[in-house]
Design brief:
By secondary structure, this protein is an alpha+beta fold. The protein folds into two domains: 1-63, no CATH class; 81-185. It contains five helices and four strands. The chain has helices spanning 24-32, 49-61, 67-97, 104-116, 125-189; strands at 3-7, 13-15, 20-22, 37-41. The chain has a four-stranded mixed beta sheet. α3 packs across α5 (125-189) and α4 runs antiparallel to α5. The longest helix is centred in the C-terminal third of the chain and has 65 residues, at 125-189.
Length: 190
């Protein structure tokens, strides 16, 4: 079950599990620790998790080293919208893992260095390169699977939040329509 965080009218956050007030930075820390959270507007009961996470991203993006790349990512997210947003997030995250993946050429360079230093024989070179590349591929697949799981969770939360917002807007529209009808009826009667 998600850890409930309440947001009060004064925009303060309250962690119901720890029974204490927290900051956006504290909430970001929880998310980074893989704690599933749900942020609820205390007055309306509305799930505002997605909106709160966007606030965190906005604050943290100020410290990103490559501002142009991060801006492009955010622009792509806005352009793609709902259904394909998961694909964009997945692509961005997997691109990030590319930094950690090991291709065959790089593995050969590393093993050549080991051969030069006498730590690996020339006969073992092909075997060591294959092992390095295979291990890197397995790690990459494991990480991709984990990222897919996180992206799917995030999309479910965002869809629920969007659905809640649509329901709330529909209720307001219905209320306004009823008020308009009442006013029209009063105008006809006078």
């Amino acid at each position: 079950m998600a850890r409930m965080i309440k947001r009060y009218v004064n925009r303060r956050l309250y962690d119901t599990e720890q029974k204490k007030q927290i900051t956006l930075e504290d909430l970001a820390r929880l998310v980074k620790q893989d704690v599933e959270v749900q942020v609820i507007d205390n007055k309306t009961g509305e799930d505002i998790t997605a909106a709160t996470l966007v606030q965190i991203v906005r604050r943290e993006s100020a410290g990103w080293k490559d501002a142009m790349a991060s801006t492009k990512v955010l622009v792509d997210l806005v352009k793609k919208g709902g259904g394909t947003m998961a694909d964009v997030l997945r692509k961005v995250l997997l691109t990030g893992i590319g930094i950690f993946s090991l291709n065959k050429e790089r593995a050969e360079e590393l093993v050549d260095e080991l051969v030069k230093r006498g730590e690996v024989s020339k006969d073992e070179k092909a075997k060591v390169v294959k092992e390095l590349v295979d291990k890197a591929e397995v790690r990459s697949k494991e990480l991709a699977a984990k990222i897919d799981g996180h992206v799917k969770k995030a999309m479910v939360k965002m869809k629920k939040s969007r659905d809640d917002e649509m329901r709330r807007l529909q209720e307001k529209i219905d209320q306004l329509s009823a008020q308009v009808e009442e006013l029209q009826q009063k105008v006809k009667e006078t």
